[in-house]
Design brief:
alpha+beta, 6-stranded mixed sheet, 7 helices, elongated
Length: about 375
């Protein structure tokens, strides 16, 4: 007589997998979620805004009693227009008829039962991450055909053929030269020069003081974004009794705008400013901190017209704990492309651009020693 063992029966039993598909890809981009998403004003074909430069005062306001006014002492601020064109972004996915039928018929895992919804969600996430990455590092030029937005930073600020980042202190941003208008420069501190690359309260206060001194309304930054290992350095440097909050759900700007984050996002606080770790800020040999005023930076977009043949949705970035994709605040329109054989083809389209309204309202700390 022989026993029926698990080994002898297992090959003949149906394989049923868990109903939830578990992603293994880090698509978290909390900084991009924080940045306000603002529709272009009606009639705007691009992102255009006027800025002024000049001195805080004239230095000659006092006048003798009864004296004639001198025309040569009249003064006005210099008006300059900043311009950034809108850019097109897309995500694509295809589903064969057999794949769709198999997923629907088997029903296991349930996450794949509606294959179109599953692939739509993942496509939206990939598009969201591409947009988040370019929000930081897009150079506004690309290869001349695929042209990204002009981001907050750029991989190579010395390349004068491209837009330098909206937070940087050299080059041209939005068509305005920082050498011509120094007030258009951001506040950049190199930690390697200031403190040998180490993180300290004095390093942070230097950049915050620079921002408050130069911002038009003397506002402090709203939030600090830290590259992953820079966060670790800050956690080691700051007072352990005061550095952690359990989680941060909302950030309120100086103008009273409230921005909601995912549940469970952890933060540290420095001088009352929340600091969030952002995996989207790249690190090689050194780390970076971004000090953002969320009233002076936005992702601008063109809203889609209401029409029966346009299907719109939210651009995502990553799954939250509840298995619901996290929204970025930007929208896509979904287009069903011409069918090619037994295959459905879809594209997600978005039109947008990054805008740093006042460059001197923000700060960047580079050169953090992360070894």
């Amino acid at each position: 007589m022989a026993d029926r063992t698990s080994a002898s029966v297992s090959p003949y039993l149906a394989l049923i997998v868990e109903n939830k598909v578990r992603p293994q890809i880090n698509r978290a981009r909390p900084g991009f979620q924080l940045i306000p998403k603002v529709p272009n004003e009606m009639g705007q074909k691009q992102v255009s805004w006027d800025v002024t430069f000049g001195t805080a005062g004239t230095g000659n306001a006092a006048v003798a009693d009864g004296a004639d006014l001198i025309d040569g002492e009249a003064a006005v601020d210099t008006l300059v227009q900043a311009n950034l064109p809108m850019r097109s972004y897309k995500g694509q996915f295809n589903i064969t008829g057999l794949a769709d039928a198999m997923a629907e018929y088997t029903g296991n895992p349930s996450d794949l039962k509606n294959l179109k919804i599953f692939e739509l969600d993942r496509c939206s996430q990939r598009l969201g991450v591409d947009m988040a990455n370019d929000a930081l590092y897009g150079d506004g030029v690309g290869d001349g055909t695929r042209v990204p937005v002009a981001g907050l930073l750029t991989p190579d600020p010395s390349d004068t053929s491209k837009n330098t980042g909206g937070l940087l202190d050299t080059g041209v941003y939005a068509g305005v030269s920082r050498s011509t208008y120094p007030q258009w420069a951001g506040n950049v501190v190199n930690a390697s020069s200031f403190s040998g690359g180490s993180v300290s309260p004095s390093l942070f206060r230097k950049v915050i003081t620079s921002i408050i001194t130069r911002d038009a309304l003397s506002r402090a930054p709203t939030v600090i974004l830290a590259s992953p290992r820079s966060w670790d350095k800050a956690a080691s440097a700051f007072d352990p009794q005061r550095r952690y909050e359990e989680e941060i759900n909302t950030v309120t700007t100086a103008m009273g705008n409230v921005i909601t984050l995912d549940a469970g996002v952890r933060s540290m606080s420095f001088d009352g400013i929340p600091m969030i770790r952002d995996p989207g800020i790249t690190e090689t040999t050194t780390g970076t901190f971004l000090f953002l005023n969320l009233d002076e930076v936005a992702a601008r977009y063109i809203p889609f017209p209401s029409a029966a043949d346009i299907e719109a949705g939210d651009i995502q970035v990553t799954k939250s704990y509840g298995a619901v994709s996290t929204k970025t605040g930007l929208m896509y329109k979904m287009i069903k492309l011409a069918q090619n054989g037994d295959k459905e083809r879809y594209a997600l389209i978005s039109y947008w651009q990054m805008q740093v309204g006042s460059c001197n309202s923000h700060g960047v700390v580079t050169g953090i020693n992360i070894s």
